[in-house]
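Worked example 3. Consider a protein that binds FE2/S2 (inorganic) cluster.
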Amino acid sequence: MNKININVIDQSGKKHNLNVDIHPEMNLMEVLRSYDFMEGACGGMCLCATCHCYILADDKSILIKNDEEDAMLDQLFSVQSNSRLACQIPLSKELDNLIIKIASAD
Ligand code: FES
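Given these inputs, the predicted complex is written out as structure tokens:
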């Protein structure tokens, strides 16, 4: 599989379906930024949280974060148990049919 489907709910609640190529060197923020869903201001350095999104999935393994991401998310008023920073999610076939909701800016 070289392509995956990603379902995106934007900040206005509108749903979008993206069919994207898997590039293992890319992360989810880079894909979402290319469609203007988010800013990704720090370029994926885990420093800005402008790539904050909510993961709507039964498989909770995608919610596992490292300490650096956890610390950044903890600073946000809008953090939820299913929050992730998209820049910390590598593109992979495991993301196929994922549903994500773009978080509002804090
Ligand atoms: S792009 Fe800055 S934290 Fe993800």
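Take a moment to read the result before moving on. Residues 29, 40-42, 44, 46-51, 85, 87 surround FE2/S2 (inorganic) cluster (CB under 6 Å). Helices lie at 28-34, 67-74.
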